[in-house]
């Protein structure tokens, strides 16, 4: 491709008598069709999958589907009446370090891979994705870890620190995280986030801690050490999400409006107390 582009450049330069005025060589990073890069391309696949989860893209339509302020499922189904892979109903996709919700980012990504490539090759494809991303554990654990720690960072790089997918983030302990698509934002989104997801996550942490307390009564010394470590992590996450819930509650009561014409930075700043820092 590089050679072909340089040949074309020389032909056009010669045709317009501009051989001495324009460069005809092409550096590797300027080749129109990029060389394959497995890590970059797998991350692009994940980004496209998230776009399908949130309704920005569809397997059944070219280009953008939901791209106007306040768009929702009604607008989506007008363009894609019978989607092969349907977007998330409320446009809120939790990201957790353990499967607490089936419709979290990891669960929906697995559904996406199953839909696109089939059930028979699902495990092989998940392993391929996980091996490309790196990290330890099972393929599902590696993919979950990428959503927890890598996806939003990569998204901000792609969009030059103007993310269109926003990450609600309780803090360093990872007590609560969830992706939303700014074009689907409506003033009642934070109330729904709080009642349907934050409160649910708090309940799950409390239940997990209760189960650990019960297990500690009969556990041996080694098991007790592992259970106490797990309890400490859950207790820290529960404390963090409690502070986060209060902040979300305060913002939810304000029913904040946004205007896409103001740009990402201005709108993101309205929720800076509950959104991940853009790096």
Structural summary, described in words:
- The protein is mostly helical and 279 residues long.
- The chain has ten helices and three strands.
- Strands 1-3-2 form a three-stranded antiparallel sheet, covered by helices on one side.
- A hairpin with a 7-residue loop joins strand 2 and strand 3.
- The mean pLDDT is 93.
Derived structural class: mainly alpha
Strand proportion, as a percent range, falls in: under 5%
Mean pLDDT: 93
Anisotropy-based shape? globular
**N-to-C CA distance:** 34 Å
Q: Order of strands across the biggest sheet?
A: 1-3-2
Query: Helical region count?
Result: 10
What composes the largest sheet? 3 strands, antiparallel
Written as H for each helix and E for each strand, in order along the chain, the element string is HHHEHHHHEEHHH
Helix content: 40-55%
Total beta strand runs: 3
Uncertain residue segments: none
* Radius of gyration over all CA atoms, rounded: 23 Å
């Amino acid at each position: 491709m590089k050679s072909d582009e340089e040949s074309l450049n020389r032909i056009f330069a010669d045709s317009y008598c501009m051989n001495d005025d324009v460069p005809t060589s092409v550096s590797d990073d300027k080749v129109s069709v990029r060389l394959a890069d497995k890590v970059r391309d797998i991350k692009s696949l994940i980004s496209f999958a998230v776009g399908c989860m949130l309704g920005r893209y569809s397997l059944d339509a070219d280009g953008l589907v939901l791209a106007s302020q306040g768009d929702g499922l009604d607008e989506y189904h007008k363009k894609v009446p019978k989607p092969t892979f349907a977007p998330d109903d409320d446009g809120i996709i939790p990201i957790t370090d353990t499967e607490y919700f089936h419709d979290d980012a990891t669960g929906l990504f697995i559904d996406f891979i199953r839909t696109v490539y089939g059930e028979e090759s699902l495990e092989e494809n998940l392993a391929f994705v996980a091996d490309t991303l790196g990290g330890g554990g099972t393929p599902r654990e590696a993919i979950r870890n990428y959503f927890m720690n890598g996806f939003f960072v990569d998204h901000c790089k792609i969009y030059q620190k103007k993310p269109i997918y926003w990450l609600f983030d309780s803090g360093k302990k990872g007590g609560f995280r969830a992706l939303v698509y700014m074009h689907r934002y409506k003033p009642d989104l934070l109330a729904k986030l709080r009642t349907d997801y934050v409160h649910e996550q708090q309940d799950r942490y409390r239940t997990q801690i209760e189960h650990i307390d019960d297990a500690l009564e009969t556990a041996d010394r080694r098991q007790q050490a592992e259970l106490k470590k797990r309890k400490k992590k859950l207790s820290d996450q529960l404390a963090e999400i409690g502070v986060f819930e209060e902040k979300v509650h305060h913002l939810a009561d304000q029913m904040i409006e946004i205007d896409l014409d103001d740009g990402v930075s201005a709108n993101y700043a309205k929720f800076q107390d509950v959104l991940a820092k853009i790096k």
